[in-house]
Amino acid sequence: MKITSLKVIGLALLTGMVAVNIVASSSVMAVATSTQTTEQKKTAQTARIAEYKSKQKLTLTTAEQTKLKGSCKAAQAKLTAITTKYQAANVARIKVYNTISKKIKTITTSLNDNNIDTKAIEAAQIKLTEAIDAYKAAYDTLAAGLADTSELDCVTDPVAFKSALVTARADQLVVVEKAKAIPDAVVTVQTALVEAKQALKSDQEAN
Amino acid sequence: MDDITRPGRRPEGATPFVASSRNEGPNVHADIAGVAPRRAPAPVAHSMHDGSSTETAYRPASTTENIAVGHPAPMTPPAPRPMPSSTPTNPIDSVSSSPSITPADPLKTMPNPPASVMPEQQKTDSSQSTHSGSTGDQTPSLLAEIEDQGKTDADGKVQQAPSSPIKKKHNIAAIMIAVVMALGLIAGAGYAYWQNNKTAQPETQSTPKTSTNSVQEESTTTTDNVDNTSKAIDEAIKSIDETKEFQATDISDATLGL
């Protein structure tokens, strides 16, 4: 009886622990994956900083370096705040793009159900999607540059700090350019929608 | 519990057993129902048959002490009860030969017969004296076994130890506690898993519903629907302004204080 009770107790506890381990293993794997990602991120950051320096090829005088060393820490704090602001703006922008894409898909489907040619709409939608993807890639580059500028040791390597900052400014211009291309793609979609509306109207009048 | 009646311990109407201080050693069983234990016949048990003692005591065979006789006159030992397992006719021999003391016939009915209790004191033997010395050292352990395994009541019946029902209850309680703990762990793990997947579900579920509803609503598409869609797209794209969101002056030297 004693041995049987011990077996039952052990089996019950083992079952409970197995269930906990199954859930915990997924979280452990996630933590391990994030740890590896952090190391990879550091390696990628170091490579990017080296690329900034080689791309900009800046030469700072001693006075400029001294001045930079004294003010770079405060500048990094401001950059962190600007990065947070850009992130919020990007999230809202992506949400708008997704809404536009869904509406276009919906109207395209309904027009197809009414046997209306939607090839022009679909082509315009593809271009819109490409423009949105280009913006996303440009923003990711800007965000990485701002993060590198904020995180590197500007006192030890003020040239790297200056190079990263200059690169981030150029990336920002690219983001604005890519963002401006999206409304142009939307205009193309709307032009195709107007044509589809005309076709639908003619079809309904004929019927 | 099984009551074991020692055969022929005392005739009917005989006085209950009272430990005799003359013939007994330490009364380790004094606390058990206030009655002295039965003890196996001692080497000096021969004196029992002298008629000099008036009391009978059961005592483990290892004891070397005198045994008080429970009844006044030497009695013819009655025939022992037939027991399911074979029992030695001479309890003392069984004690000496077997690694553990095997009780005699009456005690076979007990689930845990006290190994050291001798059923019949009358079955003494000259071998008692030879074995007493060797078993004398076992007296404390045998007495402890008696104390653990049972107690004798006033009628000389050995009762089953009261601790086994309590042990069963403890086992059942431990099992229940372990089962409850296991269920709690499983429930906690399931809740954590559900919480992790909860955030993903609404997003995936909402999308098909929206598309399904929109398709149902626009199954009969009109030009107004196209106009409405076009207006919505227009308003959405105008709500965002990249020149205000990503201003060049945000990361200029003047703004950063460089």
Structural features, described:
In chain A, 91% of the residues lie in helices and 0% in strands. The model of chain A has no long low-confidence stretch (mean pLDDT 89). In chain A, helix 2 (62-113) runs parallel beside helix 4 and helix 3 (119-151) packs antiparallel against helix 4 (158-206). Chain A has helices at 2-56, 62-113, 119-151, 158-206. Chain A contains four helices and no strands. By secondary structure, chain A is mostly helical. With 258 residues, chain B is mainly α. Chain B has a two-stranded antiparallel ribbon with strand order 1-2. In chain B, strand 1 and strand 2 form a beta hairpin. In chain B, helix 1 runs parallel beside helix 2. The longest helix of chain B is centred in the C-terminal third of the chain and has 36 residues, at 163-198. Residues 18-34, 45-72, 85-104, 113-136 and 200-219 of chain B have low confidence and may be disordered. Classes of the chains: A mainly alpha (207), B mainly alpha (258). At the A-B interface, helix 1, helix 2 and helix 4 of A face helix 4, helix 5, helix 6 and helix 7 of B.
Give the arrangement of secondary structure elements:
The complex is a heterodimer of chains A (207) and B (258).
Chain A: H1 2-56, H2 62-113, H3 119-151, H4 158-206
Chain B: H1 91-97, H2 126-135, H3 139-149, E1 150-152, E2 158-160, H4 163-198, H5 200-217, H6 223-238, H7 242-245, H8 253-256
Query: Taking all residues together, what is the mean pLDDT of chain A?
Result: 89
Helix percent band of chain A: over 70%
The major beta sheet of chain B can be summarized as: 2 strands, antiparallel
Q: Helix/strand/pairing class of chain B, anyone? A: mainly alpha
How many whole angstroms does the radius of gyration of chain A measure? 28 Å
Main features:
heterodimer; A: 207 residues; mainly alpha; 0% strand; flat; B: 258 residues; two-stranded antiparallel ribbon; 8 helices; 2 strands; 41% helix; elongated
